[in-house]
Amino acid sequence: MLQLRSSGLLLHITSLSSAHGVGDLGPAAYQFADFLARSGQTYWQILPLTPLDPGAGFSPYSSPSAFAGNTLLISFDRLAEQGLLPASEVAVLATEWQAADASMSTAWVKKQPLLRKAAETFIEQGLTVEGLGFDTFCYRQSEWLDDYALFVALQQDLNIPTWTNWPEALVRRDVAELATQTERLAHEIRIVKVLQYLFYQQWSDLITYCYNRKIHLIGDIPIYVQQNSADVWANKALFKLDESGMPRYVAGSPPDYFSADGQRWGNPIYDWAEHERTGFAWWIRRMRHQMSLYGLTRLDHFLGFDMYWEIPSTEPTAKVGTWVKAPTEAFIHAMYRQFVQLPLIAEDLGARSAEIQPLLTHYALPGMRVIQFGFGDDLPTSSHIPHNHTMNNVVYTGTHDNNTSLGWYRLSDEDVRARLDEYVGIPVTEENVVTIMTRMAMQSVARLAILPVQDILSLNEEHRMNTPGSGGHSWQWRLQPGQLTDEVSDALLALTKMTGRA
Asked: Which residues contact 165 (CB under 8 A, 6 or more apart)?
């Protein structure tokens, strides 16, 4: 349960400004932590840090690993400081990038060769650093790192990205064949492990910097994993797959506010009976790993731990599917037996949200409330309208899946606008709507309020982070240098103090 009244900002690492196109764990991350501290904030919420997949539109919610880090976030400036990259080469790349776009695809192409060069230098020089050494890191993370490193090395060596298309002995993970390939690809495996070490080293440094300024990180863990992932390849029995390794059912959500066709995510469905038989061991490892990275974790699509939408893999949309009950209480009991407390925020948004509220109340797990959702025709009883919030909630103006507050208002119909006018008691316009929405969130009785950075900057719909189901134009938004001014900081600090969240 959330104990103190506080607030924070939502900004993914990739949305930071950077001399190298996509935001990273370099200087801008530390500058943003300083901005949070100056503004009286307690939390910095981000999206998943796991690796991206070009074939999945670079979505942070569709990753080839539930445990590995996104090496595109490794700071080249930090690598140059360590002597792993020539400073002159990093400077040249920054100059070249001024003429390039800041898309994920560009970062993917430009960064991979330099990341490999840094890893090769690390291996050649046998560098060690203060704190946790490389060998110790590999030993402690071996439960997931060994499979992930071999998975990536095989993808590159075979030039076949999809594991179900690999030679049959590798698909079924023949022990002798795995040993042979591990020995043959030892150098490539080591490259992967070095890059993971460098990522987690930089992430640990940023965490320490934030905590020294009393800033806590809120992470994000997708409920599902990607079919083409090291997790599914190494743990096939934990998913509903056919003999070839392909999913018999896929995950998603039925038609809702975001999509008339629903959302067909395509992730394989868990075989919950097998998870329960193994004491939820894989999930326990996943949660323990997550807790080592963040102070709080938002558990995406928490409704799926109670009832999940199971779509036959042959269906092209999420319109056809079945609600299936998950072993909710057994799962949560297993978590509580392992951990003293569960530092989780339950993303309980969706059509069946009301059904899971007794469970959240029983376990004192905070759910999410989104101000933008409060102005439908159910306004008086909506759980998202401020007068129905409870202290054990986390309130947002909008999430990464929502429009910005200004964009939401500009695209809302007249009925929504009329309800907003009536609720706040004054005429709402494009000029004052962001102030009104952020004040409602900060004034809420909910102990934790999170504002997207786009809202404290009063940005419109062109600055939206993600539009679910829209394809390849999401996840590209970047903060520009100089946008987080002292004036913005002072205004946020004043609002935070006034609402008792400082």
From this structure: none
Q: Which of 53, 77, 147, 300 is catalytic?
A: 300
415 is an active site residue: no
What's the pLDDT tens digit per position in 72-83? 999 999 999 999
* Cα–Cα distance for residue pair 488/472, rounded to 1 Å: 31
Bridge partners, 9 (sequence order):
44, 451
* Residue predicted with more confidence, 93 or 276: 276
The sign of the torsion formed by the CA atoms of 51, 55, 60, 61 equals negative
User: Facing residues of 452 across strands?
Assistant: 10
Q: Specify the residue for token string 């929504």.
A: 416
Residue 309 forms beta bridges with which residues? 252, 323
Give the residue from 253, 286, 284 showing the smallest Cα distance to 401. Answer: 253
Query: CATH second-level architecture of 6-498?
Result: Alpha-Beta Barrel (3.20)
Q: Exactly one of 231, 306, 347, 348 is catalytic; which is it?
A: 347
- 77 tagged catalytic: no
**Pairing of the two strands 393-396 and 367-370:** parallel
Q: Which residue would you say has higher pLDDT here, 37 or 353? A: 37
347 given a catalytic annotation: yes
The rounded distance, in Å, linking the Cα atoms of 398 and 403 is: 7
- Overall pTM > 0.90: yes
CB contact burial 51-85 (16+ within 10 A = b; e otherwise): bbbeebbbbbbbbbbbbbbbbbbbbbbbbbeeebb
pLDDT of residue 131: 41
Per-domain residue ranges of the chain: 6-498
Determine contact, residues 453/7, Cβ cutoff 8 Å.
no
Query: Contact at 8 Å (CB) between 222 and 95?
Result: no
Would you state the torsion angle of the CA atoms of residues 418, 419, 421, 424, taken in this order, to the nearest 10 degrees? 180
Q: How many CB atoms lie within 10 A of CB 163?
A: 22
